[in-house]
Amino acid sequence: MSDEMEPDQTxxxxxxxxxxxxxxxxxSKEGRRVVxxxxxxxxxxxxxxxxxxVGESGCGKSTLARCLVRLYDITDxxxxxxxxxxxxxxxxxxxxxxxxxxxVFQDPSASLNPRRRAGDLxxxxxxxxxxxxAAGIRGRVAELFELxxxxxxxxxxxxxxxxxxxxQRVGIARAIALNPDLVVLDEPVSALDVSVQAxxxxxLADLQEKLKLTYVFIAHDLSVVRQVSxxxxxxxxxSIVEEGPSEEVFSAPAHxxxxxxxxxxxxxxxTPGGRRKRIILTGDVPSPLDPPAGCRFHPRCPVAxxxxxxxxxxxxxxxxxxxxxxxxxxxxxxxxx
Length: 337
Ligand code: SF4
Known about the structure:
Blueprint: E1 10-23, E2 33-46, E3 50-54, H1 61-68, E4 76-81, E5 84-85, H2 91-98, E6 101-104, H3 108-111, H4 118-129, H5 134-147, H6 164-176, E7 182-186, H7 194-211, E8 214-218, H8 222-228, E9 231-236, E10 239-245, H9 246-251, H10 256-263, E11 316-319, E12 322-324
Parallel strand pairs: 3-8, 3-9, 6-7, 7-8
Antiparallel strand pairs: 1-2, 1-4, 4-5, 9-10, 10-12, 11-12
Helix pairs in contact: 4-5, 4-6, 5-6, 6-7
The chain binds iron/sulfur cluster (SF4).
Residues 255-256, 295, 297-298, 301, 303-304, 308, 313, 326-328 line the site of iron/sulfur cluster (SF4).
């Protein structure tokens, strides 16, 4: 994030946001059941920052990402973009906002129409959302290709003619075509080779600086998230369990789940003996169809106590700028006995 940005200006906010899916049918043995994929998430994303969203697979990160750009309807709570409540706006009402709120998907092969040339794919949002004529669109597409590091003659290629990294560059060019304010990046480098990941991460950082973009960056690779994020939010079973400035959370996680996640990442900090302390979680992630009572993490928490089994902790301020959903957060992030 540039120092010139205004870090305390909220651009996107969720208030108790939830997403429920109904699964099964009334004819199935168990009837209809409800999955709370995202449950009571309250987050504020500040203009110009990168908010990293981390958690294990299936924790609800991608569902939350789709709710943030209203690709999914929201079933509970509210979503505000630049102060406007967009929780239940119709597609027509959302149309002007689409320009300002964009998404980059994990797998560019799946998100790009294989029968369209790259130039067409990048031109599409310009045709739909602007009044540019053919020459204006060609000019803007050429500009976007240069911005994302693609060559001018790449416009005639089809998606399968690109490498994975180049395809993701096409996806990014599409996402920034309309000069958005905020881009939700859902695992944008997870499908790429490690060497290419670094190039795409650097490209995203350059674009953020040049275009004054705000990012919500979702990844399961915590090293990448640490590198790119100003703040991070840790998700477990559909809810945020810890939130705060990236370096603070990484160096001193206060929630036992964050501690375990972060302990698995290569860190600079080591024990006096030179060995990294790794916290191994036991047990599987519980099913969101049947989440545990009390703290949802209690069946796997190494320090769970009786209260944790009956009382669900709220996400509350733990210390300035840090929020934690735990009855017994660690004050200094050190390992517990
Ligand atoms: Fe562990 Fe209890 Fe905190 Fe949940 S509330 S994370 S079970 S200590």
